[in-house]
Amino acid sequence: MIETTESAPQADQLVSGQLEKLHHDLQHLKQQLRHTQRLATLGTAAAMLAHEFNNIMTPIMGYAQFALSRKDPDMMIKALQTTVAQAELACTMSQRILNMSADEPPAFKSIRLREIIDRSVESLCRDLAKDGIQLRIDFDDDLHVLADASQLQLVFVNLLINARDALTGRSGQITISADVGDDRVNILMADTGPGIPEDALDRIFDPFFTTKKDQSASGGSGLGLALCHEIIEEHRGRIEVASTGSGGTSFLISLPSAR
User: Fold this and answer.
1) What's the pLDDT tens digit per position in 117-175?
2) What residues have CB less than 8 Å from 254, skipping those under 6 apart?
């Protein structure tokens, strides 16, 4: 009986140590997954940037070749002006991707929602109108939320990429609206795409689950929405998805208000 009594605390201590190690390992795995999720988003953004670089270089090459063939000083000046303008655009687009790559602890503060949405749209590196997609933003420009700006931008970049991909090859619309209620800001992003199959809705935020068959850079790694879910939870918020499976998908995000 004495040996049993003395061994019980040792057993409890052993179990406690094992649980602590398991908790530490779990946190490490979550950090690795978070890093992988971020890299997947950056990979998609970088692929879009590389694609748009072709559009940036086309007028540079065209003006330069024409100016050299004509040996026209005025045309050479025009070629240099075009080169400077397009180079500035390339630098701006690259900086947007670099800003997204910053892996720093979240800094929650009052931020203007419209500013984050505009940054996210710019991070796509391509005008949605060029793909026949109309973007409609419908909320008060002075609406503020309590959030980390760079983290929240990652969320909207992922959602915009998904909406754009859903509308590829068809004309459509992406609508972003918001309202305030009970110290929360409720943000709704909806698209007029084909929708998400009903049997996929329950798994849509699971890591590595994707409804996109094409696994190329713009196809989908199944990590974007998982990252969105994790970031929104860190913000003491929630994200929900609704889709009929026959047309249209909407994401509802609720965040703390910063009034």
Assistant:
1) 998 888 777 788 888 999 999 999 999 999 988 888 888 988 998 899 889 888 899 99
2) 184, 185, 186, 187, 237, 238, 239
The tokens for 54 are 């072709």
Where exactly are the structural domains of the chain? 109-256
Residues 176 and 136: beta-carbon distance below 8 Å:
yes
Instruction: Give me the numbers of helices (H) and strands (E) for the chain, helices first please.
Output: 5, 7
> DSSP letters of 100-127?
HT-------EEEEHHHHHHHHHHTT-S-
- Going by C-alpha positions, the residue among 157, 118, 167 that lies closest to residue 37 is 157
As its CATH architecture, domain 109-256 has 2-Layer Sandwich (3.30)
| pTM of the predicted protein model | 0.66
Contacts of residue 57, defined as CB under 8 A and 6 or more positions apart, other chains included, come to 86
Q: Using CB atoms within 10 A of its CB, is residue 93 exposed (0-12), middle (13-18) or buried (19+)?
A: buried
Q: Which residue has the tokens 């795409």?
A: 193
Kind of pairing between the strands at 172-181 and 133-138 = parallel
Alpha helices in 71-170, H assignment, sequence order:
73-100, 113-122, 149-166
Residue 59's φ and ψ, nearest 5 degrees, are -65, -30
